[in-house]
Structures are given as C-alpha cells and as structure tokens.
Amino acid sequence: MSQTLHLPVMRRGALALLLCALCLLSGCAQLSYLGQSVGGHLRLMQAARPVQDWLNDPALSPELRERLVLSQAMRQFSVQELKLPDNDSYRRYADLGRPAAVWNVVATSELSLTLKTWCYPVMGCAGYRGYFERAEADAYAEQLRAEGLEVLVYPVPAYSTLGWSNWVGGDPLLNTFIKYPEGELAGMIFHELAHQVAYAADDTQFNESFATAVERRGTAAWLALHASETERASYQRRLERRSQFRQLTDGYRSRLLAIYTGQQADAAKREAKAVLMQELRRDYAELKHSWGGDSSYDAWFARANNTSFALLAAYTELTPAFDALLTREGDDWARFYAEVQRLAKLPKPERRSQLTGKPVLP
Description:
By secondary structure, the chain is mainly alpha-helical. It has 2 domains: 2-199, no CATH class; 232-316, no CATH class. Helices cover 59% and strands 10% of the residues. The protein has helices at 12-26, 28-47, 51-55, 62-80, 134-146, 182-194, 204-226, 229-260, 266-290, 298-302, 306-316, 319-328, 333-344, 348-356; strands at 2-4, 49-50, 92-94, 102-108, 118-120, 124-126, 129-131, 150-156, 158-160, 173-174. Strands 2-3-10 form a 3-stranded mixed sheet. Helix 1 packs antiparallel against helix 2 and helix 4 (62-80) packs across helix 6 (182-194). The two termini are 30 Å apart.
C-alpha cells in the first residue's frame, strides 16, 4: 500500500519560514509533526542516486542490477504506453536501510468503519498520519488508543509527492519495494505515477481508487507484452487469491457495517462484533488451506480491526467506476486522465455522482 505525502519539498530556508507560519496557524504540536515529515523526506531524497550511477558500480549485486534495469524498462513503458508523466520520478534509487518508507497510523472509533482524518494548513486532510520513524508512529498510536480508538500502524513501501519533488530528482525507487515480483513492481510504479496525474484534495478514496485502476490496467498491459509465461501465471495466481481475499473481507465489512448502523445497544454491538471477527479468522483459515497454506495474508488477519476494513474501502471501492470510465473513453489513457482531472475539480458529492452514475445522498 502506498500513500500520498501532502508536503511539498523545498529549500531549507523556505522550509523554516513555512514551518513558522504553520506554527502560528495550527500550534507547535502540529509544527513538530510537519517538521519530522519534511526532515524525513529530505533525508530520503538525499539518499537517492541516479539509477545509471548504481549500474555503473561494478560492486552492485546481480540481483539488484537486474531489478533496476527492469524498473527502467517499466518506467519507459509508463510513458510510452500508459501516457504517465515523463519526468525524473523513479529514475533514481535509494537504499533506506529499513523495511518501510514510512509507517502510517490510522484510526477509527470502536463501532465505526470511518477513518479518523487529520487536516493540515495548505495541504488538506487525509485518513492517515505518516511517520518516518516506527517508534514515533507507535507512540502516537498509543495516544489514540488511550482515547478509546481502534488503531493500526502499518508499513508503507512508497509514497507520492504529487510531482512536487521532480525539481530535485523526483520520487525515487526504494529498497522497500524494488525486489517485489515483476507484476507488483510494475504496479507500484504505475500507481505512484498516477498520483501525479490527478489529485482531489480531501478525497483519499477517489485518489487511491484512481491510482489502483491505473495500476491494475497498466500491470496487465505490461505483463501481456513483456513478462514470461511463468511470471504471468504466477501473477494471475496471486491476483485470484487477492480477489478471494477481497470477496471474503468485503462480505465481513458489510456485516460489520450492518452491526454498527443497527439499533442494538453498544454492548450488544460489541458482542456481535467479537463473534464476527472470530468467524472471519475461521473462514480465512479455510481459505488459506485451499491455497495450500499460502501465508501471504496472515499478518492482515492477525491485526484486523475496523481500520483494516476502512483502509480496504479507501483503496478500491471506486476502482470499478474508474475502470468503467477508462473503457468508456475507448481505453485512451490521455482522454481518461483528462476526465479524471475534470472530476477532481468538482465538489466531492458531484464528483462521486458523476463518477458512479448514482446520486449521493446528503
């Protein structure tokens, strides 16, 4: 899972002035958070070097060399075939020496599937709060749990700066995802570049569902033209299991939502929720057995709570609508992007109504 970092990269002098202004607008607790965001991103950017520099290093491991070469073929494909931005993003590489680019903190109330949002001056609102240090993310998560919220801290392999960082080298490839299987590596690159095409402020579901639609269609096109038969078969197997995972979790998300919006007292809702979560894990055990013991989703089910279901909806609930839109535009990527950009400028209710073809209730 990726995220969008709502923070432009700038020179240190301008950064100091911005942070002082934000402190006046929103308090110095907010300033501290924004400071770690900017500082963490600057360190990440400083660690990145052009891919060609890495390839010129005779000490580079054969495995990493192969992945970097592959990534650049995917990057070229993204421009030529998918009409994604032709800029410096994903033409540099950084090894961060850690397993994630950032760690996200997300939260919901105990009996809700609606993500808590955090709003920042200039940058808008988002349903997560990202930290470059795991310890800081865990500490903030504990504060939220003390408030009675359900919380999840999860690693994010990549994020987008919406093109803001292209003047200083662009968003880089990272060790956190460079060794993904071929289909997932292509999907990651296409997904993150899509965030540079269109962005609707304060609408995470719109943004992520759009990027996921580009990811899925783009990956299918890449694999069809460039991957081996073995890789296509392997990706298709993972895709089928992902579909089964989504079918299972979508069903339980609907059942949880019915509990939370029902007329029962909160105590009864808590009891029904506990029973449902037990059933969820039992059904997953059966599904996993049918997969021959594939443990790819173990971590998700081990920590599953309200936030887990809310996140899934944020990333994919509108994806079928975007897929249908691309089909209506004759699979013409440029026309598709232009329509998505138009929708992104509309008020949120109108945007949803036009995208899905359904009226949005107040």
